[in-house]
Design a protein that fits this description.
Layout: E1 3-7, H1 11-20, E2 26-31, E3 44-46, H2 52-61, E4 64-67, H3 74-81, H4 90-96, H5 99-108, E5 116-119, H6 122-132, E6 136-140, E7 150-153, H7 159-166, E8 175-179, E9 185-193, E10 199-201, E11 205-210, E12 213-219, H8 226-242, E13 247-256, E14 259-266, H9 276-279, H10 284-293, E15 305-312, H11 319-322, E16 327-331, E17 341-349, H12 352-365, H13 369-381
Parallel strand pairs: 1-2, 1-4, 2-3
Antiparallel strand pairs: 5-8, 6-7, 6-8, 9-10, 9-11, 9-13, 11-12, 12-15, 13-14, 15-17, 16-17
Helix pairs in contact: 1-10, 3-4, 12-13
The protein binds adenosine monophosphate.
The site of adenosine monophosphate has 13 residues, from β14.
């Protein structure tokens, strides 16, 4: 009996456990909160990620360790890795935790990135603005997620306001200034690399964000040339090989015509891959477990067309989705809170037209027309 240990007990851990039960796997989730929603589906150990006694107890009960949450202290990942296999490894995790080191790696690998500069003082902000230009975005290097810890600098006149907003974090988590990309769309590659180096990727997914948080994903992304698809997957492969990555990760990219610019990598299963549960032969969650356990990865082939809609704050009425052909519902079992990811729906169909029809019906039934409209518009473009 193999037990997979997961650091972090959110919806990603929950969906990993749900994917692993048919494979005969046991799970143990470590999280500081007794409320962790993964605890409804798998045994939960309540403890801090930096609590050595908690980590020791956890390590003694599991055969392999993986993550639902990438901001686990690097020292904890290293400590665990001396006792039990940890995938992805602490080095890959460390690179992905810091926007500066991940962007530097992308650049080294020849992957296009927006202009970027590290900033640790007010004077360095001025110097960075001179190099990067405006408009640009200042972000925290570490611990930023879902658009948090970001400030948009439209012109040099905004520099003081940006420093007022984020300057206090310059010495703790560090800051980075990045050129603002006027993208046509945002896409991601969700990819997996096995222990033996075997590499596979799902087709490019298009993503829509609202206030920096993912709202909808469409797979496969429409109007993607073979060359662009191959390039995106090559970028993901380069990153995976350079970091000796094991498991699933997402590479988020901005598209400007045929040009792809890398934004960031997420060293874990990713929200833009949730559609794979119903929309692919092997889901990202199962693929991740297969990878970290050294099992054959299988095929990631798509089943038709899929759109995932995120539910933030509170859950809408499930019937609006369950009544649609190909409608699937995921309630994470969390209590409602403004902006919190509490669930998602996936609509799957054999054709773009059928997917568009199902989205229109679900959008109307749930009064979420604004959320589905960009996806319907994209599908109509063909
Ligand atoms: P991030 O936390 O870096 O993924 O940023 C969240 C969202 O902010 C992205 O999905 C984009 O919609 C937007 N964003 C982040 N960085 C940039 C950039 N350099 N240029 C334009 N938009 C950006």
């Amino acid at each position: 009996m193999t037990t997979v240990g997961i650091l972090g007990g959110g919806q990603l851990a929950r969906m990993l456990a749900l994917a692993g039960v048919p494979l005969g796997l046991r799970f143990l989730v470590l999280d500081p909160s007794v409320e962790s929603c993964a605890g409804q589906c798998a045994p939960l150990q309540v403890g801090g990620f930096d609590d050595e006694a908690a980590l020791a107890g956890f390590a003694s009960k599991v055969d392999v360790v993986t993550f639902d949450f990438e901001n686990v202290p690097a020292s904890s990942a290293q400590w665990l890795a001396q006792r039990v296999p940890v995938y992805p490894g602490p080095r890959a995790l460390g690179i992905a935790q810091d926007r500066m080191s991940e962007k530097s790696l992308f650049r080294e690998l020849g992957i296009p990135v927006p202009a970027f500069e590290a900033v640790s003082t007010r004077a360095e902000l001025d110097a960075a603005l001179a190099v990067v230009g405006t408009p640009c975005i200042m972000k925290t290097r570490r611990f930023g997620y879902d658009g948090k810890g970001q400030f948009r600098i439209k012109s040099l006149a905004d520099a003081d306001a940006a420093w007022d907003a984020l300057g206090a974090q310059a010495q703790t988590v560090g800051l980075i200034v990045e050129g603002f990309v006027a993208f046509d769309r945002e896409v991601s590659v969700v990819a997996v690399r096995g222990r033996d180096g075997e590499f596979k990727a799902f087709p490019l997914t298009e993503n829509w964000h609202v206030d920096g948080v993912l709202s909808a994903s469409l797979a496969p992304a429409t109007r993607v040339s073979e060359a662009m698809q191959a390039r995106a997957i090559d970028y993901a492969r380069l990153v995976a090989e350079a970091t000796e990555y094991v498991g699933v990760f997402a590479l988020e990219l901005f598209c400007q015509g045929e040009t792809l610019l890398a934004n960031e990598m997420a060293p874990r299963v990713h929200n833009s891959g949730h559609w794979t549960i119903e929309g692919a032969e092997v889901s990202q969650f199962e693929a991740h477990l297969r990878a970290v356990l050294g099992l054959p990865l299988g095929t990631l082939a798509m089943r038709g067309h899929a759109c995932m809609l995120n539910w933030l704050g509170d859950m809408p009425d499930a019937n609006g989705v369950l009544a649609q052909a190909g409608g699937h519902w995921h309630d994470y079992g969390k209590s409602p809170r403004a902006g919190r990811k509490v669930g998602h729906a996936t609509l799957r169909a054999d054709t773009p037209a059928a997917l568009s029809g199902a989205l229109a019906k679900a959008g109307q039934a749930l009064s979420r027309q604004a959320q589905v409209q960009p996806v319907i518009g994209r599908l109509a473009e063909g």
